[in-house]
Amino acid sequence: MRQVARRARRAGTALAAVVAWAGLLAGAAGCTGGGLDTVLGKSRSPADTIRVSPDDGSKGVEPGRRLTVKVPGGRLESVRVVRTQDAQKFEVPGRISVDGMSWRPVDKGPLAVAATYAVDAVALDGHGRRSARHTTFRTAVPDERFVAYVAPENRATVGTGMIVSLEFNEEVRDREAVQRAIKVSARPAVDIRPHWFGRTRVDFRPEKYWKPGTEVTVALRLRDVEAAPGVYGLQDKTFAFTIGRHQESLVDAAEHTMKVRRDGELISTVPITAGAPKTPTYNGKMVVTEMLEVTRMNSRTVGFGGEYDIPDVPHAIRLTTSGTFLHGNYWAPDAPGETNVSHGCVGLRDVKGGSPKTPAGWFFDRTLIGDVVEVVNSKDKKVAPDNGLGGWNMEWKDWVKSG
């Protein structure tokens, strides 16, 4: 599934670039364990419509490679490229060619090392039909060095469910040494503990959701720390983020509703459509990790066949690495509030192109990266704690065991 953002939003809406979970960086956008709910005819694949080099999901890209965006026909309408290093974001300036068929960066120098690049492109074909694509790739790290790709961003304002997540480009054999070099602190103070998911990822969270207004600081003192024999850290960075208001939304798949609560007060009950009986939505607590005003969703990128390929899904809010989204739905307007028809995503009523006046647009404009969406009464299993930021589904006593 391919994605593209068309709006530069609040500071918390760009978690993707340095996210610490592989699926996000792989550029998959879909509805697994469920998802989208219709086939809108046959269309070319996103990769054929908008061609990005280096390839989507590439890792270890050498700095000498050229970054290009091209279309075989029609013209590019917009291209936005963001480079992320150590939780810091940098716009990559570029130009669309006179004929509209290609984009290249203004700076013809090498790509940055140990960075994540996110490309968001929109194109029009010869018939004026709009298509969108979102891709990401990672550049190489110098030999015998390791880095941590970090979420959330520096200076972001995030929801109370945010989890600090670090994904390493190399296996960590000496957890204790690496963990000693990472300090996550908060003001006001709260007990924050790590949990390791395998050898390449460690997440940090408190026992309960953060309190609004908390300032969180992450210090990475990884430079020259030996994570594995002969593999040493590269980073010596500090970044911080702020916890915003508390918002938690409860999706009831059986009742076809989502109750949105802000600071404990119910502010709206929104009709939804969840996963159909054969493709149900995950149960459990999921954290918003990415927000895209419009994106392309293709069933083949998340393990399905050719059930759907929708080039302009509006108001897409990522909930899991595997491809569960909460998004606008304009192709099945009678489903929200009545029946579950998706392939695992949660759909809200919307119009083609999206509108701030629809339920999907209303919710999108009131959401932060780090907000929690909990699904209940679905026929699927509970979401895994390492699928996106699913760590709130673990009991505290289990969370602290690996720390």
Description of the molecule:
It is built from five helices and 29 strands. It has helices at residues 22-26, 46-49, 175-180, 359-364, 396-399; strands at 3-4, 51-53, 68-70, 75-85, 88-91, 94-96, 102-105, 116-124, 130-138, 145-146, 148-151, 157-158, 164-168, 182-187, 192-196, 201-206, 215-221, 226-228, 231-233, 236-243, 247-252, 257-262, 265-273, 284-287, 290-298, 309-318, 325-329, 346-349, 372-376. The strands form six sheets. It has a ten-stranded mixed beta sheet. Strands 2-3-7-6 form a four-stranded antiparallel beta sheet. The longest helix is centred in the middle third of the chain and has 6 residues, at 175-180.
What's the helix and strand layout?
Blueprint: E1 3-4, H1 22-26, H2 46-49, E2 51-53, E3 68-70, E4 75-85, E5 88-91, E6 94-96, E7 102-105, E8 116-124, E9 130-138, E10 145-146, E11 148-151, E12 157-158, E13 164-168, H3 175-180, E14 182-187, E15 192-196, E16 201-206, E17 215-221, E18 226-228, E19 231-233, E20 236-243, E21 247-252, E22 257-262, E23 265-273, E24 284-287, E25 290-298, E26 309-318, E27 325-329, E28 346-349, H4 359-364, E29 372-376, H5 396-399
Parallel strand pairs: 10-19, 12-20, 21-29, 27-28
Antiparallel strand pairs: 1-25, 2-3, 3-7, 4-5, 4-8, 6-7, 8-9, 11-13, 13-16, 14-17, 15-16, 17-20, 18-19, 21-22, 22-23, 23-28, 24-29, 25-26, 26-27
Number of helices: 5
Gap between N and C termini, in Å?
35 Å
Spatial extent as radius of gyration: 20 Å
Strand order of the largest sheet: 1-25-26-27-28-23-22-21-29-24
Biggest sheet details: 10 strands, mixed
Total strands: the figure is 29
Secondary structural class: mainly beta
Low-confidence stretches: 1-28, 32-42
The helical percent reads under 10%
Overall geometry: globular
What is the mean predicted local confidence, pLDDT?
88
- Beta-strand percentage? 35-45%
